[in-house]
Write a structure and sequence with these properties.
This protein is α/β, with parallel strands linked by helices. The protein is built from 6 helices and 5 strands. It has one domain: Mannitol-specific EII, Chain A (3-Layer(aba) Sandwich), CATH 3.40.930.
């Protein structure tokens, strides 16, 4: 599937506005800290999608994606996170891309920070595209230099070129 076409220009953010706050002094609940940063990122991306009127309720979508994240983190390794959910709030398959150069705590399986976020939603009945995109992303980041190219992209054109290489 052509990721450059699926991720519309208005749903690409070359730098997230969400930043990771400094870790609080001891004692603190690390899990609560991680969750608060994760929720801030998810909220920013949900707001981005809501601006384009591609969903029913932003509040319910945030709740659905948060519940999905509570089941199992979508933070992978090498700075990549793929938050995704099938939800009634999705009017159609929608995908967004965001990047955080400094990185954000997202409970990645390798313990590192997440820099690249591929967020997608689909209606509950739309499994085919949803699963195909997930497999494509997982393969691209497992066997290629996609993450490095997306991190090095200085502008929208370079992001598009990197996305096209992932096809």
């Amino acid at each position: 599937m052509n990721l450059a076409r699926l991720i519309k220009p208005e749903l690409r953010r070359l730098e997230l506005q969400t930043t990771m706050p400094p870790e609080p002094e001891e004692p603190y609940n690390r899990q609560r800290f991680v969750w608060s940063t994760k929720e801030a990122v998810l909220s920013e991306i949900v707001d981005l999608i809501a601006e384009e009127q591609r969903i029913g309720s932003a509040k319910r979508l945030l709740q659905d994606i948060s519940n999905r994240e509570k089941k199992a983190s979508t933070g992978l390794s090498d700075g990549v996170a793929i938050p995704h959910v099938r939800t009634r709030e999705a009017r159609e398959f929608t995908m967004a891309f965001a990047r955080s150069t400094p990185g954000i705590e997202f409970d990645c399986i390798d313990g590192g920070l997440a820099h690249l976020f591929f967020f997608f939603i689909a209606p509950p009945y739309d499994d085919v595209v949803y699963l195909r995109i997930y497999r494509q992303l997982a393969t691209a980041f497992t066997y290629g230099d996609s993450a490095r190219e997306l991190m090095a992209a200085a502008n929208e054109g370079e992001v598009i070129r990197a996305l096209r290489k992932m096809d």
